[in-house]
Amino acid sequence: MENRYCVIMCGGIGSRFWPFSKAARPKQFLDFFGTGRSLLQMTYDRVSNIIPVRNILAMTNEKYAPLVKEQLPELSDDQILLEPDRRNTAPCIAWAAYHIRAINPNAVMLVSPSDHLILREDVFKDCVTRGLDFVARYPYLLTMGIQPNRPETGYGYIQMGKEEIDGFSRVKTFTEKPDFELAKVFVESGEFAWNSGIFLWGVNTIIDSIHEHVPDIAMRFDKGLGKFGTEKEMAFIKKEFPACPNISIDYAVMEKEKNVFVQRADFGWSDVGSWGAFYEKSPKTETGNVIRNCKTVLSGCENNIFAAKQEKLVVASGLKDYIVVDDDDILLICPLSEEQKIKQYVNEVKANFGDEYL
Amino acid sequence: MENRYCVIMCGGIGSRFWPFSKAARPKQFLDFFGTGRSLLQMTYDRVSNIIPVRNILAMTNEKYAPLVKEQLPELSDDQILLEPDRRNTAPCIAWAAYHIRAINPNAVMLVSPSDHLILREDVFKDCVTRGLDFVARYPYLLTMGIQPNRPETGYGYIQMGKEEIDGFSRVKTFTEKPDFELAKVFVESGEFAWNSGIFLWGVNTIIDSIHEHVPDIAMRFDKGLGKFGTEKEMAFIKKEFPACPNISIDYAVMEKEKNVFVQRADFGWSDVGSWGAFYEKSPKTETGNVIRNCKTVLSGCENNIFAAKQEKLVVASGLKDYIVVDDDDILLICPLSEEQKIKQYVNEVKANFGDEYL
């Protein structure tokens, strides 16, 4: 147990749920499903079941420090690592690995996004426990592969090879979002799993892989040896972190590394990456409406999402398959089928009205 | 000029424009057309061109006193008559007539709603001037009849008889909102005009008619003779006004009185009694959207009304022929074709959430 660490990545900012999530309060900080806990808090609840609380780290952007402290009061300040700049997941995970290794050179770590939904926490707990045992024993990178139930084109896919160790398969290929036909072939073949972005590995294993595949990141962090885990760490990070390449761990390491294994998992996972996914996972009224927070008087409205502030009264008529989000200073009304256009709207808003509304 | 008075009725409260207009700030107090002046202020501007400002009275409910004072700072407190209760137009006009007669027994008065739109003010000025001359000369009630340009079913119609005096026709019948077929017959006959609710008469003429047709109102106000125009007036009104029957001047007097004349007028009038009328009279974008106050980013939106607060950004996609109104605590989204259902929604809101949102 002492060697188990968790890194919760919660510095992301997406515009797909704008204006429900905004730059000042991204998705992971929202009570997305009306449970009373934000997605970040749900992530914390899930991992604190498995990993000692003092071994949990939250990696976030420094501007979200107040939000993380407010939402995760269980973490002490030195468990919240504040990125001085946005550099995608590879530098983030590299820092976390160097930091943890300085504290415990035998550590194994679970890397978890903070904005996903996992419904079956007992299955998750069992998977993580077995996965951490695996990466404690073998110098391999392990990724959680979700059993696909449909030809989803919004996810990355992992192809599993024949070689198995302790029931985990060696990864053959990673494929980013395929088109529908290809996704169908993938799912039907039985050889593919969805890439959940949940990773497990020993700190030394990942640091070795970073050296091999992204040496510029490794060399930069190597300069800080002796500083990680000390009071000199933040000054070092402030200087070096922004100089790291902006690159994802998938692209920088996972897709290049030969020793990646996948653990097939089926714990009711969704990355909640779209309004469609949010709609699908949410409880609905008899007429198929998802109502988040607000009061409603609806007539002839079917299969919509209504999200607004607690005190808002939404009176709507004749809307079908729409997203209606009302924030203090923004109202979005958009067909669910056009949700991919929301990013365009955000760009247009930015061009016309500046950052004020983002 | 000294004998000319104007009574602006601004105590009404309608729910047809809810939540754009609400009980706390009904339609007449709103800058409906984005001109910078409310409908009440536009009414004041229009009549103060014709009638001495000191002879203009605003009749309103006592709860709207602060709004009237704020919007019409030109009026002194004794020009704002505050109704202690809602009793429709007959008691309101009776009070105004008794009040004015006490000040000037030779007065003629123009009675004007405060929530209508009149586009051609010069024509209006000319009509009112000629109308006031007419009622100064003859003991007749005069009503402004608008030249109809379509078989509108939302208006009342006035049938004009053959008898004419000074170019004004004696009224034959009043007909409340006809059905479409009947309205067509009315318009094609050339004998009918729309009832604008704008009246002109001598104070003695209207008080005589009230005696004849609604004696209970007349007798009640007669008890206050000697008090009108004095400091005793309000105490008297507080006691007697609420005891008056709740009845309109049309029903109580106009439809019963034989000596009613109509002045045909064509000054670009609309009672702005519906979102459809509002839409029709408002400036539109290239794609036919009416945008009141708010900022917008629109995609595939045609022929909608968007009304919100100045600072609100409305981002909408794929809406056609909708009314979208965003108020602080209420959001309404409703097809323009279903605007008559808004009253139902208001009732439902009231039943479910109380008066808070009205």
TrEMBL record, chains A, B:
<dbReference type="GO" id="GO:0009298">
    <property type="term" value="P:GDP-mannose biosynthetic process"/>
</dbReference>
<dbReference type="InterPro" id="IPR029044">
    <property type="entry name" value="Nucleotide-diphossugar_trans"/>
</dbReference>
<keyword id="KW-0548">Nucleotidyltransferase</keyword>
<comment type="similarity">
    <text>Belongs to the mannose-6-phosphate isomerase type 2 family.</text>
</comment>
<feature type="domain" description="MannoseP isomerase/GMP-like beta-helix">
    <location>
        <begin position="304"/>
        <end position="348"/>
    </location>
</feature>
<keyword id="KW-0808">Transferase</keyword>
<dbReference type="InterPro" id="IPR005835">
    <property type="entry name" value="NTP_transferase_dom"/>
</dbReference>
<dbReference type="GO" id="GO:0005525">
    <property type="term" value="F:GTP binding"/>
</dbReference>
<dbReference type="InterPro" id="IPR049577">
    <property type="entry name" value="GMPP_N"/>
</dbReference>
<dbReference type="InterPro" id="IPR051161">
    <property type="entry name" value="Mannose-6P_isomerase_type2"/>
</dbReference>
<protein>
    <recommendedName>
        <fullName>mannose-1-phosphate guanylyltransferase</fullName>
        <ecNumber>2.7.7.13</ecNumber>
    </recommendedName>
</protein>
<feature type="domain" description="Nucleotidyl transferase">
    <location>
        <begin position="7"/>
        <end position="286"/>
    </location>
</feature>
<keyword id="KW-0342">GTP-binding</keyword>
<dbReference type="Pfam" id="PF00483">
    <property type="entry name" value="NTP_transferase"/>
</dbReference>
<dbReference type="InterPro" id="IPR054566">
    <property type="entry name" value="ManC/GMP-like_b-helix"/>
</dbReference>
<keyword id="KW-0547">Nucleotide-binding</keyword>
<dbReference type="Pfam" id="PF22640">
    <property type="entry name" value="ManC_GMP_beta-helix"/>
</dbReference>
<dbReference type="GO" id="GO:0004475">
    <property type="term" value="F:mannose-1-phosphate guanylyltransferase (GTP) activity"/>
</dbReference>
